[in-house]
Specification:
- The protein is built from 2 helices and 8 strands.
- The protein is of the alpha/beta class.
- The longest helix has 12 residues, at about 30-40.
Length: about 150
């Protein structure tokens, strides 16, 4: 839970706003789709081509409300592969995406079994009632796992 929990503002002109997807730039379509399917059990929901790029939409195993949109093809610079979480905090802008899970520990154990290294965690922050951990995809995109701390 966050430190503050203000009531929803249904009168806002942005009241219909909600998460839909995050865009991730990758060089190799096949490798990226395979990684997200094999390591995270994501499902390929759609694919198209435009502007010399293949666009693919992948959803988590049991959630169609939020997707990762892969933009695959040559022409982009590589992002540095992070070695630890602190090394990723030196740039402004987008840092990570986060998925809520039932158990950070169980999810990390399965990721490690699948050969995915951990960047940080698990750790807890009582002030926000969260347990979390971080890992990255092979293209340097940081992913967080979070769960509420049992009260």
């Amino acid at each position: 839970m966050p430190l503050f929990s203000p009531a929803p503002d249904v009168s806002s002109p942005f009241a219909s706003m909600g998460g839909d997807h995050v865009g991730v730039r990758v060089a190799d379509y096949d490798a990226a789709v395979a990684w997200y399917k094999e390591k995270l059990d994501f499902r390929l929901m759609g694919k198209t081509e435009a502007s010399g790029v293949i666009w693919a939409f992948l959803a988590p195993p049991n959630d169609d409300r939020f997707m990762i949109e892969l933009a695959a093809g040559p022409g982009a610079q590589d992002r540095a592969t992070p070695k630890d979480l602190h090394g990723t905090l030196g740039l402004h802008g987008w840092h990570h995406l986060c998925f809520r899970v039932d158990s950070v520990d169980d999810t990390l154990e399965e990721l490690r079994r699948r050969g995915v290294p951990t960047l940080a965690g698990p750790m807890e922050v009582a002030e926000i009632n969260r347990r979390f951990a971080f890992f990255a995809d092979p293209w340097g995109n940081v992913i967080e796992l979070t769960q509420p701390i049992a009260e």
